[in-house]
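retry 2 of 3: previous attempt timed out while embedding MU-OXO-diiron. Reduced batch size to 1 and resubmitted. Inputs unchanged:
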Amino acid sequence: MSIRPKLAEAVNNQIQLEFQSAYLYLSMSAWFTQNNLPGCAHWMHLQWQEETQHALKLFKFLHDRGGNVVLQALAAPNEQYSTALDVFKSVQAHEELITSAINDLYEVAIQEKDLPLQVVLQWFINEQVEEESQVGEIVDQFTMIGSDGPSVYLLDRQLASRTATSGSSTN
Ligand code: FEO
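retry 2 succeeded.
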């Protein structure tokens, strides 16, 4: 059964948010490179990839359901950060916003009785729990070490070890 136009529009809005997230994290990756924190830059670069995969997952879903993908404009990300903690706090706030958007979309999928959309969104709901947990941990770590240079250096090295997760797959 084809997706209803109202739901297709809502999924297109979510695709925009996922690409906007990717764009934001790519800009943060650049900020970290320019501020000599290559581990954080690497972490953000992987986050950019993950968000792109999220957008593409919905992109494919919409086509599979006979909907039209309508790509929307992306806003220029804010690049005014002062510390790594500042950046990760922004990520945390942004992910909370994305969680709300996914939850709202899920509510609409329930109201419209669209079961396939509910199923694909359950993957996103789980992903948001994981993302909020991961970034919350990093915010706590940067808060704990404050501006202690050697500790920031060590945490940056730790973040350099992040690898791409299978959870970012579009399948
Ligand atoms: Fe795709 Fe981080 O939300």
